[in-house]
Amino acid sequence: MVRTFFLYFINTNTDTVSGHIDIRGLTFSYPTRPDTRVLQDYSLSIPAGKVTALVGTSGSGKSTIIGLLERWYDPASGSIHLDGTNIRDLSLGWLRTTMRLVQQEPVLFNGTVFENIINGLVGTPWETASKEDQMERVRQAAKIAFADEFITNLTEGYDTRIGERGGLLSGGQKQRIAIARSVISEPKILLLDEATSALDPHAEGILQQALDSASKDRTTVVIAHKLATIRNADNIVVMSKGRIAEQGKHDELVALNGTYAKLVKAQDLSIKEKSSHDNSSEDDSPEAAEPVQSLAKYDTEVAPRLTSFKNMEDFKLYKQTGLVHTIGKLIRSTPELRMWYGTVFIVCILGAAVYPGQTLLLSKVIDVFSSPDVVKSGEFVALCRIRSPIRPRHTAKAAQGPTRGPIYNYYRLLNL
């Protein structure tokens, strides 16, 4: 447990990482649903510098793999190795700096474009670099994410404020800023969890170019429902009920006429590709290159997906819960840190008791002067001041000897 606590603060050299991930026999259930196996004896090798795509129906365990790679949870059995080292033996902060995640709904803050992108340097040596060096890295990351052009066209460029949660930007623009934030630290591993699924076709096409650019020379794990976006992946892993049903390249899986082929037919991939080629000339126009998307339209597109949670059987898991329930869930999900939780709790109680204890002691001292047995009570209070000093300065005063300590002062008052 001590080792687990201190691993968070240990730094590891990022330059020595190649990015090979080896998943060995994972079995996992969420703490809120311990009886439901999300992954069952799941094993997968993700080669360094390649694009590995995870596809499958909802609930097959795709996003769970991302959560385990980021160590939001630890598996019940099995292990994940990065370049041959178990990720549980690596610094948690360093691991999450090495693996950068782009999710379906990017989290942006009410600041400037520069401030949002520069957040990707937290925990890296460039965090303390000069403003000029940081700006250069921000521009490079924005170019990789195909975001530099639209950012420079904003009213104040990189100093433009984007509003709460990036509300002044379109969905595609927010995603490209999130990609720039992810690649600015030059991570060895990039995790993409349905990064394009909430966008319209025009914005999706531009964003896909940004993702392809960001994935170069990086170990990339992609989760996608739209199979057209992962057709060129080096390895496509088809998941079903927490297991691997098929894996291989696109053409190989289609030739098998199995689960992946059925998914392709369901999405009518060939028709979509033909339609995209027919409209390629229109997409190259300036108007199509950066579609205008109002906030109202974007909110309408997202709303059905958010309200769909109401139809889920376990919607109660998404309700807001009280502080005590949340703390209990945290303790249950991280049993290896329970000793530290208990230690911190006791220290907090003792620290919080300092001022109430000081108040009680002061009231007792005042009460001494109105007590009939003033000498006996005074000796007790003086002894408390010596044996249980509340502040370091009390200890120093008590150690000054009988001529200047609290007992001496007390008897001097009695003899006045």
Explain briefly what this protein structure is:
With 416 residues, the chain is α/β, with parallel strands linked by helices. The chain has helices spanning 2-7, 62-69, 92-98, 113-118, 131-144, 148-152, 171-183, 201-214, 250-256, 259-267, 269-278, 280-283, 286-289, 295-307, 323-333, 338-352, 354-368, 374-387, 392-398, 406-414; strands spanning 21-28, 39-46, 51-56, 77-82, 85-86, 99-102, 189-193, 219-223, 235-240, 243-248.
Keywords:
416 residues; six-stranded mixed sheet; four-stranded antiparallel sheet; 20 helices; 10 strands
Polypeptide structure, described:
By secondary structure, this protein is an alpha/beta fold. It has 2 domains: 2-319, P-loop containing nucleotide triphosphate hydrolases (Rossmann fold); 353-414, no CATH class. Helix content is 46%, strand content 13%. It is built from 20 helices and 10 strands. It has helices spanning 2-7, 62-69, 92-98, 113-118, 131-144, 148-152, 171-183, 201-214, 250-256, 259-267, 269-278, 280-283, 286-289, 295-307, 323-333, 338-352, 354-368, 374-387, 392-398, 406-414; strands at residues 21-28, 39-46, 51-56, 77-82, 85-86, 99-102, 189-193, 219-223, 235-240, 243-248. A 6-stranded mixed sheet has the order 6-7-8-3-9-10, sandwiched between helices. It has a 4-stranded antiparallel sheet with strand order 2-1-4-5, with helices on one face. β9 and β10 (243-248) form a beta hairpin. α7 packs parallel to α8. The chain is globular and about 100 Å long. The two termini are 59 Å apart. Mean pLDDT is 75; it is low at 1-12, 281-315 and 387-404. This is ATP-binding cassette sub-family B member 5.
